Amino acid sequence: MTSNIIRVPAEMLFEEETVAEQQSIETMKEQPKYVIHIIWRYVMLFLYLHIASLYGIYLAFTSAKLVTVIFAGAHRLWSHRSYKAKWPLRLLLVILNTTAFQNSVIDWAKDHRIHHKYSDTDADPHNSNRGFFFSHMGWLLCRKHPEVMKKGKAIDISDLKSDPMLVFQKKYYALLMPLMCFILPTVIPVVCWNETWTNAYYICAVFRYIFLLNMTGLVNSAAHSIGNKPYDKYIKASQNKSVAIMISGEGWHNYHHVFPWDYKTAEYGNYSFNITTAFIDFFAKIGWAYDLKSTSEDMVRKRVEKTGDGSHDLWGWGDNDQTQEERNQMIVTYNSAKD
Ligand SMILES: [Zn+2]
Ligand SMILES: [Zn+2]
């Protein structure tokens, strides 16, 4: 007789999802080769939404009166605790997060903490070693690798689960998300400024959603494959200026993976490529955000010298990379030295 090891035939995985869910870990023990498990209903849903968003672009250039763009982000607050926020700001961010349909904050932040802890390994939900498309969006279309589930159990999210606003959002997500992401963005433009139903749905709801989803995906795909590594050349996360411009400062990813607690997610506080920093600073000025954490210049310099790929900007006067010609030709005004 054959052994009594439970094996699930590959074709069954697509038909009997519940069987695969319960037995996947057991099966993996006996089958070292990981078999990708595509969730076809998600594939069809995302296919439809992408096609519908293309129609939204067409309408935007032909008959739209107004394109509404909403950007939401809870990355720096909840995933990394890089600053603290009073309840009005937390409420605002939860509402904006719900409009983005990228899972509840608790689920998003848990995935993101796993990503940081096990970057670009099988335990990373959007492991960039599995290809550009997988890290960009493919990971949303198939079941998580067993290693993600296994390592995810050890990730502490007790702080997130103790926040009543986040618990409420997760509990009622199936109701709140369609309302905030699709229904209200369609109804509000029609009622408030007489937009057509077609424009409102395809542009303000679907296109806005798909656009933001793809922009977010670029952080996991492009910023994990394209760019230099001035802070740590041994990781895949890279500095990608294009992504930083498009995602409000989230593209300085080599720095962010080295110093994930820095609320600026970048070394410099330059607002032009980091609108999210300006957003947090604004709320800090009115007292809604506080305890903004940053990294000292000295700590950054030590890390650059230790693990950087040599592409870091000049530190300033006296930097080892400064040429003699630059030193000779410098201009000093209000010189205090007396000749
Ligand atoms: Zn990353
Ligand atoms: Zn992060």
The share of residues in helices is 40-55%
Domain count, please report it.
1
Low-confidence stretches: 1-16, 61-73
Determine the structural class based on helices, strands and strand pairing.
Answer: mainly alpha
Query: How far from one another are the termini?
Result: 99 Å
Sequence of secondary-structure elements: HHHHEHHHHHHHHHHHEHH
State the strand order across the main sheet: 1-2
The total beta strand count reads 2
The biggest sheet amounts to: 2 strands, antiparallel
Q: Which ligands appear in the coordinates?
A: zinc ion
Q: How many DSSP helices?
A: 17
Strand content: under 5%
Mean pLDDT: 81
- Provide the gyration radius in Å: 24 Å
Indicate the overall shape.
globular
Keywords: Fatty acid biosynthesis, Fatty acid metabolism, Iron, Lipid biosynthesis, Lipid metabolism, Membrane, Oxidoreductase, Transmembrane, Transmembrane helix
Pfam families: FA_desaturase
GO molecular function: iron ion binding; stearoyl-CoA 9-desaturase activity
Membrane topology: Multi-pass membrane protein
